Every structure is written in C-alpha cells, then in structure tokens.
Request: fold
Amino acid sequence: MLSSPLVNDRLGWLSDYPFTRLATLLSEITPRANVEPVIMSVGEPQHAPPALIDEILRTKSHLWGKYPPVAGTPEFRASAGGWLNRRYGLPAGMIDAEKTILPVAGTREALFLTALLAVPESKAGQRPAVLLPNPFYAAYEGAAVMAGGEAVFLTTTRETGFLPDLDTLSPELLERTALFYLCTPSNPQGAVAGRSYLERAIGLARRHGFVLAVDECYAEIYDREPPTGVLEVAATTGGDLSNLLVFHSLSKRSNAAGLRSGFVAGGPDLIALFSRLRSYSIAGTPLPALAAAAALWDDDEHVVENRALYRAKFDAAQSALEGRFGFYRPAGGFFLWLDVGDGEDATVRLWRDGGIKVLPGAYLTRPDADGVNRGSSFIRIALVHDAATIAEACTRISKIL
Ligand SMILES: Cc1ncc(COP(=O)(O)O)c(C=O)c1O
Reply:
C-alpha cells in the first residue's frame, strides 16, 4: 500500500505487477543445482526477429534525430491498413489509413491510455464502469483504476468458453459502462471470440454508448482457424467503426517485442481524439523502427513460419501433459492455462525442484463478484522456447506436480 501522501492514491488500489509478485514469491528460492532454468513465465517470443529489421534500421539511421510524429508515417499507416485488409478481407474503403489508424509504441501503452480516452467523470450520473475479463492482462486493470473508473471483473471459466458471458451484464451495469476491454485470442486461456459474440459486443457498445477495446495482439498465433477479428465483423454491418478500437502488435506476430510497435485502428472520431490525447503523452516509436515495422506488416511469410513453430511447441506440450491439469489445446495464443490445485504452491515447487519458472494464475485474476478467486488453482505457462526445450520442460512439470 502507498505510504506517501504526495502521489496519486489510486495507485494504492493496484497490487504489484504480476512479475514483481512472482519475483517476490521466488526471491528466497534457488533451483536445484543440476537443472537448467527455463523461464516460462513471460510471454516473450524466443524465435529470432526477422533479419529485415536490422537491414531497415541501418538504411534509416539518418532518422534517429527526429521526433516520431503521433500519426506515424503514411508508409506505416498504409502497411498496417494493407495487412488489415489482407488478414480480414475487408472491403475497399473501410479502412481509411489516414483517419482510422494510429501507430502505438507497443500495445500496452495504448491499452493503458485508452482508459484516459474513454472514461468520463461520470456516466449516467454514476461512477463509470470499465469491464474486463477475469483473468486479465494487467494493463487493463491499471488503466481502469488510474482513469478513475470502477474495474468490473467478468468471470471467464471453461463453462463460459473462457470469455465473459455477455448475458450476465445487467442493464444497470451497461448503462454506466464507459469501456469494455475484450481480449481475443485471450491471454491466458487462448479463447477466441466468434463472429456472433463480437457482433453482440459491438451491439452492446453502440446501444449503451461505451468504447469496445478489442485486444487482438495474439491474432496471428493460432492453431487451426484464423481467429475472427472485430473489424471483420464490423465489415458485415456496413463497415461502421463507431465505438470500436482494435489493437494489433508486432511483439508476438513478428517476435519483435523490443521494437515496441503496434497500432490501433478504430472509428475516425475516436482516433482523432486519441491522437489529441497521445500528442500530450506518448513517446512514440522512433522513425527507423517504424519503417522496420511497416516492412514487417507487409510480410506474411515469417508469420506463417512462426505459426508452424508454435504448433510444434503445442504438440510437444500435449505429448507430455495431455490428460493432466485440465490440459487443452487453445485455439490461439501461446499459453497453457493449467489447473494444478494451488497455483502459487505449484510455482514454488516447479522453480525449486525443476528450475521452471511459471506464473501463478492468481496474479492475473481478482476475486469474482462472489468473492472466489478462480485463478488461484491455475498456473500460466508461456510456450515460447523451442519445441525440444518445451518437451523436456513439460516432462519435468508433469513429474514434479
Ligand atoms: C493480452 C496482451 N495485450 C497486450 C500486450 C502488450 O504487448 P505489446 O505492448 O508488446 O504490444 C500483451 C503482452 O504480453 C498481452 O499479453
């Protein structure tokens, strides 16, 4: 908790960030001497980033002296828009790259700032609500709280298809909802929202006047079917982008988490206001990096290769863990979400006895409305190493737990 009166006391509502909590949990524990540590707690792709990043950074080195414009460059916006059109088969003209796309310095900062964009002082005369899935990407909660909204955690379990159940949202709640963060494919469970789900979510946003922020940063990491995108669904309702923001990132798609590059697309009104807010706040992606990012959005080949590598990782994990801990093969993303009974205890044992670092599920969840923290029995495992390392690590996990 905060002890200084000199800072924004909303910070006191936030717990330590999940990886800080993990470091605290494991601070006194040293893995046994004869095991090679494998860090499976962080969703940081380990495949080499495409070589074209280096090539482009070299040719654009004269641009390091320039401040990155908030709107990025026409080239970047055209590449991002071109990718959206290819990936989702959008009709010509739906994406106006000048008005509906902004570059972001990684989607985390943009997801965070979205709450400052979307949460007013009050909504329908009440404290605004920010809806988020439970479990959730930590930035959503930080954003909701720091923007002065009430974070409302929506239960997601196997029974709800690991997505918030839209039928449980009461009219009273919807009336004061300012923002709804939806993640598809979801982190950590890898659930994908289908067309009708997204259509309903868009309908609710428009009917109740809130922003639907769809985090699709795992859109390109999938097992069988390309996940439906919210823009694809918007296309079938006349291409209307109102109330919508969608977030895409190169961190997972192109193994380029360090490039800090993604983009947000959405309705022109929201994008114009977001641009105004961002003028006051963001650092931006440097122009050489933005040029490399544009080239990455233009290239789909490395993404196809990437996907094949992820499938091999899931094959390896499946061989070792199928039939245990509620193992399932997620439709998207690169995480395992395993029910191990006591997630913190399992995390400690895996680190101590196997040198395997995972994340307790409870660090990604809050208690649901009934007071039960349904993440407590889970661990999250990032399948980001090569398939042989994963096979070996998952065998260790299976033996230790
Ligand atoms: C669900 C989700 N959204 C957004 C991000 C942010 O990614 P980046 O800021 O690298 O684009 C992450 C990163 O792990 C994530 O898991």
Remarks:
- The pocket of pyridoxal-5'-phosphate is lined by residues 43, 106-108, 111, 137, 183, 187, 215, 217, 249, 251, 257, 262 (CB under 6 Å).
- The first helix runs from residue 18 to 26.
- The chain has a mean pLDDT of 96.
